[in-house]
């Protein structure tokens, strides 16, 4: 009897190890946690992630139970929040901002039976994957429209933090504009925050005062757009369609659609087939979606916009397709070549036409 009991316990233990990333019983929903850097009402980055969470719930119904924590600072407090979600029984945890990378890695080591996925980072482990959108694809398309709409040949960009992800978007935006207007220059104001409407507003006002008549941003609120409308210039939505906040100024939006990734990830966890890796989706995968163009955009610009969007989605064009030249005139990507992925992910220079220097 003792040996039979021992064998039963051993078998049970083996099954537990094999199904560590599955709900404990079919009747119990898979608990999924989300950590957000801003409020879900920011109309930008966090709002877009939360729309993905809502889509996840709709896709799986009572098979999943989601929870989220918003306004979590990037740093020590993030580790506390991530760890708390882990101890509360969440079997999948999505941490949705670059600054959560190290805290996520640390908590993942302590909870090997939980799947962690970190947005925009580069550290992976057996139970830690990364994901991001090829947002630079959409930024290039915004640039095409900006280049055609600008009368001053001066664009403005409200930057959040001087990390490769943001520098990549500034450069792609500028390259897109220069593809239709070689006289374009881009001015950048850094606000060192993802979400602070007051700082974003001030930065937008500064750029307009410096002659920018079309604005872009890598921040989360619609403040830049609202200033643009007040001042009679144009701007773009970022992360989500922001047209309702400034319908006259809003030309189009570069939006993140996280739903496909969240649904596919949870589907693989439920099936027991999830594996760590790096996921990057763009226009082709439907993870980057352009919102409708404003009727003020000229027909020629609309045509170029749609043609280039199709070419990018079809893999026939890449925003960082050579020649790409930096501010000093040095060739970074030769004609006929495309910037290698590792260089693209670690980009640390401005292309020719972007003014100023990247803060250290």
How would the blueprint of this fold be written?
Elements: H1 2-18, E1 30-35, H2 45-60, E2 64-69, H3 76-87, E3 92-95, H4 101-110, E4 115-119, E5 128-133, H5 135-149, E6 154-159, H6 164-178, E7 185-190, H7 197-209, E8 214-217, H8 223-231, E9 234-239, E10 250-256, H9 259-271, E11 278-281, E12 288-290, H10 299-313, E13 324-325, E14 331-333, H11 341-345
Question: What brief labels describe this structure?
Answer:
six-stranded mixed beta sheet; disordered N terminus; 360 residues; 11 helices; Rossmann fold; single chain; six-stranded parallel beta sheet; 2 domains; alpha/beta
How many domains? The number is 2
Order of helices and strands: HEHEHEHEEHEHEHEHEEHEEHEEH
Largest sheet: 6 strands, parallel
Q: How much helix, percentage-wise, in residues?
A: 25-40%
CATH class of the largest domain: Alpha Beta
Low-confidence stretches: 1-20
Distance linking N and C termini: 69 Å
Q: What strand line-up does the widest sheet have?
A: 2-1-3-4-5-11
Q: Determine the mean pLDDT.
A: 93
Q: Assign an overall shape.
A: globular
Strand content: 15-25%
CATH topology of the largest domain: Rossmann fold
Cα-atom radius of gyration: 22 Å
In the CATH hierarchy, what is the architecture of the largest domain at level 2? Answer: 3-Layer(aba) Sandwich
Count of beta strands: 14
Number of helical elements: 11
The CATH superfamily of the largest domain is: Response regulator
SS-based class: alpha/beta
Oligomer: single chain
């Amino acid at each position: 009897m003792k040996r039979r009991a021992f064998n039963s316990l051993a078998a049970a233990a083996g099954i537990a190890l094999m199904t560590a990333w599955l709900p404990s019983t079919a009747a119990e929903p898979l608990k999924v946690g989300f950590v957000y850097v801003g409020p879900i009402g920011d109309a930008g980055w966090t709002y877009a992630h939360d729309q993905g969470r809502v889509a996840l719930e709709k896709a799986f119904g009572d098979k999943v139970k989601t929870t989220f924590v918003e306004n979590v600072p990037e740093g020590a407090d993030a580790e506390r929040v991530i760890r708390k979600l882990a101890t509360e029984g969440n079997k999948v945890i999505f941490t949705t901002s670059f600054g959560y990378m190290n805290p996520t890695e640390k908590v993942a080591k302590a909870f090997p039976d939980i799947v962690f996925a970190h947005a925009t980072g580069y550290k992976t482990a057996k139970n830690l994957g990364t994901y991001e959108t090829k947002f630079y694809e959409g930024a290039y398309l915004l640039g095409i429209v900006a280049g055609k709409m600008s009368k001053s040949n001066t664009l403005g960009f409200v930057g959040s933090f001087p990390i490769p992800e943001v520098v990549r978007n500034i450069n792609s935006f500028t390259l897109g504009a220069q593809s239709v207007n070689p006289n374009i220059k881009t001015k950048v104001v850094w606000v060192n925050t993802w979400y602070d409407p007051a700082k974003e507003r001030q930065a937008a006002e500064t750029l307009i005062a410096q002659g920018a008549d079309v604005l872009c941003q890598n921040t989360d609120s619609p403040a830049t757009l609202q200033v643009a409308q007040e001042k009679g210039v144009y701007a773009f939505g970022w992360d989500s369609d922001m047209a309702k906040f400034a319908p006259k100024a809003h030309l189009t939006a570069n939006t993140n659609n996280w739903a496909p990734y969240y649904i596919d990830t949870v589907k693989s966890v439920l099936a027991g087939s999830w594996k760590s890796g790096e996921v990057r989706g763009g226009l082709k995968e439907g993870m980057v979606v352009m919102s409708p163009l404003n009727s003020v955009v000229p027909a020629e610009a609309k045509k170029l916009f749609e043609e280039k969007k199709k070419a990018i989605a079809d893999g026939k064009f890449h925003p960082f397709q050579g020649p790409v030249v930096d501010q000093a005139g040095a060739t970074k990507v030769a004609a006929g070549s495309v910037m290698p992925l590792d260089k693209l992910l670690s980009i640390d220079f401005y292309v020719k036409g972007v003014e100023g220097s990247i803060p250290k």
